[in-house]
């Protein structure tokens, strides 16, 4: 249960911005204005599969995903949440939570591998991260 | 905590075959020989999002997904497991667990929306379902 040796994969780092440090996971926002899209990355060394976490950590991962999903819905109302753990390209364990809207850039297909990311304008990005932090705070306790 | 009113979505029924009744979920095999691909469908009425389950049911869902994933890996060794809950097309809550192999028909993209399913030959299908049941049994207790 230590963060020792955890280093965020450089591709995840390049594609996303930090939102919050949860108990287990680093919560990040994908820098793609097409979708409201969060990543949860457990801060543990050398994880690939969910089964590489202990049972207690897995339970914590799902609780943090649930909390992140609730905050995301508050900030970005959606028609359907999408949850995914793929890792075919970046093997470091990470979980996607995406707010999908009917008719969005990938609808009804998955966001993964769909077109090119469209970075947020700087003000938009800061506003979304602040809104997410507010929604996470409001969900606490 | 009752199955009352649960009816499997007809599209999920048409695309997959029953493997086992777990405590919460119906476990099914997608009839697509391109991928070793399981579905978990919680037997509860009118579920769309994971958040529609109680906290206890969510915990059970993840435990059953973990058990299903372990059985799948036994039967179909893979390079990466993919887990997904999308529901953009079929809204009834269902969770995908897919054994991915480098170079498979969708690699490294997601399986969802990728090409057309290739049904198993009948003998293959029965053999895979039996193997999965055996692996699930071996994981019990």
Biggest β-sheet of chain A, characterized?
Answer: 5 strands, antiparallel
CATH superfamily of chain A: HIT-like
Number of domains of chain A: 1
What would you call the quaternary organization?
homodimer
Radius of gyration of chain A (CA) equals 14 Å
Total helical segments of chain A: 3
Overall pLDDT score of chain A: 95
Secondary-structure-based class of chain A equals: alpha+beta
Contiguous low-pLDDT stretches of chain A (5 residues minimum) are: none
Give the DSSP E fraction of chain A (strand runs of 2 or more residues): 15-25%
Would you identify the CATH architecture of chain A?
Answer: 2-Layer Sandwich
By CATH reckoning, the class of chain A would read Alpha Beta
Helix content of chain A: 25-40%
* Overall morphology of chain A: globular
CATH topology of chain A: HIT family, subunit A
- How far apart are the first and last residues' alpha carbons of chain A, in Å? 22 Å
Strand order of the largest sheet of chain A: 1-2-3-5-4
Give the topology string of chain A: H per helix, E per strand. Answer: HEEEHEEH
> Biggest interface, which chains?
A-B, 28 and 28 residues
**Number of strand segments of chain A:** 5
